[in-house]
Write a structure and sequence with these properties.
- The chain has 130 residues and is mostly helical.
- It has one domain.
- It has eight helices and no strands.
- Helix 3 runs antiparallel to helix 4, helix 5 runs antiparallel to helix 6 and helix 5 packs parallel to helix 7.
- The termini are far apart.
Length: 130
């Protein structure tokens, strides 16, 4: 239900439903983030991600991909700073970088105009698909 509201851009109903959930897991948190990304409300998606960290909810690959998309599309310079922080966290804590996270990082750096970082990420990926 939560995902359906987000897919339809009804983030008011999505948040209403989310707030009333007795148990919120990584899937429900990521669904809210994804809903904000789909509706191009990038700052709100990052705010939800920060709350996810605050409540010590483990992040998934899908969570990182969605948040990196936000950081790539934010007009403010803070998007680059936040994306770099997320990249650092992934590097320190997630072990091997998947193709999906690597691709999201390459997209992030490319959209932010930092191709040298995009090339570095590509060269660090163990499994490269073109």
């Amino acid at each position: 239900m939560l995902d359906a509201f987000g897919r339809n851009g009804d983030m008011g109903s999505a948040l209403f439903f989310f707030d009333r959930m007795s148990e919120k897991d990584v899937v429900s948190w990521t669904s809210v983030i994804n809903g904000f990304v789909r509706s191009k409300q990038f700052a709100k998606a990052i705010w939800v991600f920060e709350k996810m960290i605050e409540f010590s909810v483990k992040r998934s690959e899908a969570t990182y991909v969605n948040v990196l998309s936000c950081c790539a599309n934010l007009e403010e310079q803070s998007g680059f700073y936040q994306g770099r922080q997320i990249h650092g966290y992934i590097f320190r804590n997630e072990g091997v970088m998947s193709v999906f996270m690597g691709t999201a990082l390459i997209d992030f750096y490319g959209k932010r105009g930092h191709l040298e970082f995009a090339f570095r990420v590509f060269n660090q990926m163990l499994d490269r698909e073109v």
